[in-house]
Amino acid sequence: VQLQASGGGLAQSWGSLRLPCVAVGSISGIDVMGWHRQAPGKQRELVATITSGDTPTYAGSVKGRFTISRDNAKKTVHLQMNSLKPEDTAVYYCNAAIQLTTQINYRDYWGKGTLVTVSS
After folding, report:
1. pLDDT tens digits for 77-90?
2. Cβ contact 109:99 at 8 Å
3. Helix, coil or strand: residue 14
4. Torsion of CA 61, 117, 86, 81, to 10 degrees
5. What is the mean pLDDT of residues 39-50?
6. Which of 67, 74, 60 is CA-nearest to residue 17?
7. Is beta strand 114-119 parallel, antiparallel or unpaired with respect to 9-12?
8. Cβ neighbours around 119 below 10 Å, total
9. pLDDT for res 106
């Protein structure tokens, strides 16, 4: 199983970016999906999550600016980032709790990350 994230790049303050992440492999089910980020010199932090029933949660620092959504049929999670700030600069990682066709339990999987840089 792989989580393939893309969409990162350079944006100006108050600009927007959209990050898609698709789960690829022999997947039977996907539970919670989410995005985390790690800024230079800082620990990785939670940005947003979304349940299989489409209930989102957000970190306080992005609430009202970022929107997480998912397409279960396409095994994809998106992070729409608006009103970007320089402090949003980080590597963004998607993750998901996935059940393989060969297993019963769900396990956490992580993508490799995509860099978002916001200039002032």
Report:
1. 999 999 999 999 99
2. no
3. coil
4. -40
5. 97
6. 67
7. parallel
8. 11
9. 96
